[in-house]
Design brief:
By secondary structure, the protein is mainly alpha-helical. It folds into three domains: about 1-105, Serine Threonine Protein Phosphatase 5, Tetratricopeptide repeat, CATH 1.25.40.10; about 110-170, no CATH class; about 190-265, Alpha Horseshoe (Serine Threonine Protein Phosphatase 5, Tetratricopeptide repeat). It has 16 helices and no strands.
């Protein structure tokens, strides 16, 4: 692409400013010229510079320009998706991630599962529709299913979320996040004993999972099964002797069981 003389001079000035360490001036100039020209090379340059400077506002602008100027650029869409998620523009982020997936990149669809608590109901519903559309093409994609389960739970459809969790465990039975998801869903659906039994089964298979053991200990404590809860917390204490939460739980159990001497320890 042939640049007009003014643009060439501005780009040269920006380049020199960058060499001299005046990154802010370089960033501003590159961004102006990227907006003027929609040149993929200039847009890429300013996007990478903004990322280096951690200038998120400019990075969002630059990545948007780059993705517009070069729709087949995987890197441009990766930068853009990250910025859209940071701005809670989840529906736009999903569309950009779909492009990343089409271009052969790692789309990180499980982002949505970890951010579902920050979303509006409208965003949750729109994302669920989008994910369901994707599952018609690829029904066994774990990241998409994981986000779907989290969205269903947040939308109040616990039984459907539990069904999705079972599908996930059928695909990856040892995946810790999927095990925790199912246990939490069972508990939320007031199936406390089923949740405890499920966690006990999982710990029998793999006892070296403190997160699962801690979840089981909490459920047992809530159910006032204090002796069983103490067993689990004692195992955790042996693994993490300085963990304040575990020490506090053991003290509380001693109080509940009227073992005041042990509580003082």
């Amino acid at each position: 692409m042939a640049f007009p003389e003014g643009t060439l001079l501005a780009l040269l000035t920006a380049e020199v400013a960058g060499y001299r360490g005046d990154y802010q001036y370089a960033l501003d100039q590159y961004l102006i010229e990227a907006e003027k020209t929609l040149d993929p090379g200039v847009a890429a340059r300013v996007t990478r510079l903004a990322a280096y400077m951690k200038a998120d506002d400019k990075l969002y602008q630059a990545a948007s320009l780059w993705a517009q100027a070069d729709p087949e650029s995987l890197e441009a869409h990766q930068f853009l998706a990250d910025q859209l998620v940071k701005r809670a523009l989840y529906v736009d982020a999903l569309e950009t991630m779909q492009t990343i997936d089409r271009l052969g990149g790692e789309a990180q669809f499980d982002y949505f599962a970890y951010r579902v608590g920050r979303m509006t109901q409208e965003d949750r519903q729109a994302l669920l529709l989008g994910l369901n559309d994707m599952l018609t093409v690829n029904p066994n994609e774990p990241q998409i299913l994981f986000s779907k389960a989290a969205l269903l739970e947040a939308l109040g459809d616990g039984p459907a979320a539990l069904e999705t969790a079972d599908t996930l465990l059928g695909l990856k039975p040892a995946e810790l996040n999927f095990i925790i998801l199912k246990a939490n869903l069972l508990s939320d659906l007031n199936q406390k004993q089923a949740a405890q039994a499920f966690l006990s089964e999982q710990l029998a298979i793999n006892p070296d999972q403190p997160r699962l053991r801690l979840l089981l200990a909490r459920l047992l404590f809530e159910a006032q099964a204090f002796s069983d809860a103490r067993v689990q917390y004692q195992i955790l204490h042996e693994i993490r002797p300085e963990d304040g939460e575990i020490l506090f739980a053991l003290a509380m159990l001693s109080i509940e069981q009227a073992d005041f001497a042990q509580a003082r320890l």
